[in-house]
Amino acid sequence: MGRENQTWMSEFILLGLSSLWETQVSLFVLFLAMYLVTVLGNLLIILLIRLDRWLNTPMYFFLSVLSFVDVCYTNSTVPQMLVHFLSARKSIPFYGCVLQLLISLAMGSAEFFLLGAMAYDRYVAVCRPLHYTVIMHRELCLGLAAGCLGAGFMNSLMQTIITFQLPLCRKVVNHFACEMLAMLRLTCVDPSFNKVMVAFSGFLVIMLPCFLVLFSYGHIVATILRIRSARGRRKAFGTCAAHLTVVSMCFGTAIFTYLRPTAGSSAEQEKRVALFYAVVTLMLNPLIYSLRNKEVMSTFRRVLGKFSEKG
């Protein structure tokens, strides 16, 4: 019977964030503005890194990959949420739901691995500056980026398959997107095995990169404190501040959602945290990396000056 229900179910209904029309219109305007800032900000970062040869370094290469991942993630969930704000029927086809979970989970997982790779890059830059170009060569950077994306996709594929293999008895999803924990609440059977896999996957995808970040920044802080020049310490801290800010937001939301005891979690709390990550955190990422980075802002002014001269 479970399998028949799963095969017969052609769509899901997403409850979204509110059922009040006035609230939905206000949320549409707010999140549309944030969505445009996210997409345009990340695309601008990718463009600037491609245009300026001074930004052709490992740090900015990883930043461009991170911006690409953020654009893919936000486009997997936010456009549909915006459409649903103005729709009477908030439905998503079965296979559309599968694809949404696959892409969003793949990009989210890849982001954590990338943040770990970026922390290692900062560790080499600060702690072993004389060997930086030798260690962080082009092949290693390409391999790390490909490995992060590949690992994220494999994790997502595994989680998506075992989630949608379960018999689903309900079609109403208490979420604004097809999120994994929300989908597990629709099952006819005990999803304990899936929850164990979520915890195991969360350890590999979230905690291992988190440990790498903590290890890297532990050595970075120790190295910076040994720098005698106050100006040198400020410069070293400045190169890491933006990354550390983004790391805190991303890992904080993920640990709260996927690694805390299930007994203390609720659908509404998970929805709010997921919204914060999908909209707020991804919007702040390009702002943090651009406004707190003198090289990016300098490149932006140079490119803007060239276009104004041509105009």
UniProtKB/TrEMBL annotation:
Functional description taken from the UniProt entry: Putative odorant or sperm cell receptor.
Segments forming domain G-protein coupled receptors family 1 profile: 41-289
Membrane topology reported for the UniProt record: Multi-pass membrane protein
Protein keywords: Cell membrane, G-protein coupled receptor, Membrane, Olfaction, Receptor, Sensory transduction, Transducer, Transmembrane, Transmembrane helix
Descriptive protein name: Olfactory receptor
Keyword Oxidoreductase: no
Gene3D superfamilies given in the database record: Rhodopsin 7-helix transmembrane proteins
Lineage: Eukaryota, Metazoa, Chordata, Craniata, Vertebrata
Organism: Rangifer tarandus platyrhynchus (Svalbard reindeer)
InterPro entries in alphabetical order: GPCR_Rhodpsn, GPCR_Rhodpsn_7TM, Olfact_rcpt
Coiled coil spans: none
